[in-house]
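Fill-in record for Methionine-gamma-lyase.
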Amino acid sequence: MANDGNYKKSKIGDHQLKPETMMMSYGYDPQFSEGSVKPPVFLTSTFTFQTPEEGEESFHIMAGRKPAPEGSVGGLIYSRFNHPNVEIIEDRLSLFEGSECSVVCSSGMGAISAIMLAYLRPGDVIVQSAPLYGGTETLIRKFLPQFNIKTAEFDDGLDEEGMLTALRDAGKKGRVAMVFIESPANPTNSLVDFEALNRVLDSIETETDHRPITVCDNTLMGPIFQQVVPQGLDMAMYSLTKYVGGHSDLVAGAVCGSREMLRPVRATRGIIGLNLDPHTSWMISRSLETLSIRMERAASSGQKVAKWLADNAYISAKILHPDFIQDKTYQAVYMRQCSGPSSTFSFVLDVSKSDAFRLINNLSIFKSAVSLGGSESLVCHPGSTTHSGVSTELRDKFGVTDGLIRLSIGLEHPDDLIADLDNAFKMTFQG
């Protein structure tokens, strides 16, 4: 990224600044806002034009009739389309993901919906990895078919031949327009091999003269421990509600990719009204400043909690944490694609749902709630909550069983979290 004035400075001499440093200032010039060190919240619905000619030009760019100037998304018009607070976090999130640009939306599902509405048409086929977050599963399997958008899947993202067969079979239903994956997957931490997927798409393109668009939900790892776009996928999608927001006090989503790839997504966001409000955008700019240290601390604690669960003296537990999944292929892909583990992972016990509920009820520090990536530690039973809209048959197929419990490790001291788990396990399985 080249220097773009003092407020988009990315280098000092030949030294490339790190994203953590640029989170403090990139994309914002204090001199535009009375010298305020931090961006103000721009609470306005509309923006003035210096001349009517400027207004006409801005609308041409917003509508896609003219390209935006290099390095810009066009002038400010109306807060449904863009505003300073959202542009600041779009610039900064792109630095972490390593993408050319980003589009921020009012929720993670809003971001996914904008992508699919921008690129899918009746008769198309979308191929998904499995499992996905429950809301995404519902959107793909239950909502899109109402618009004659067909669906297909593969359930082993480490099996290159299996992915190729799944895409070839999907092509018999119609034009395969998109491959939507989640890696690592929620709640099993299963992976999709990006290099293998790109080879599969190369084969499909050779056979059909058409290359499906690739989208990865990067919420669990990114953008600190995994960057998707630099590894050859078209778009990275985020629920910013999770680690990026990081405090369980906002809802937002984002898409990262090239400027050209995101042009129809940005237009769809404006048409439907999916833009994020200024205040929440400002809160995310605050959170981006501490994102790396929060995720690194939570990941360190998560590793310690996972080790205690693996070694616990009360009941055998299968640990679905990237560092504890004993599969050579998985570990090779994990080491290649990721720089560390997420602090969200599941463990599986051979118990009934009522016993799983008893264990959760016996916890004190962990809060029983959906979502993840906040400063507080959460515990969730996906089968009865986030994935309850998925059929029992599919949940069993993907391993989302009654004995699967998901943890999101926050910023409490890991010794206290382990003590809480030890007490709950003791009360549940020795009481």
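KEY FINDING: The chain has two domains: 84-285, 290-430.
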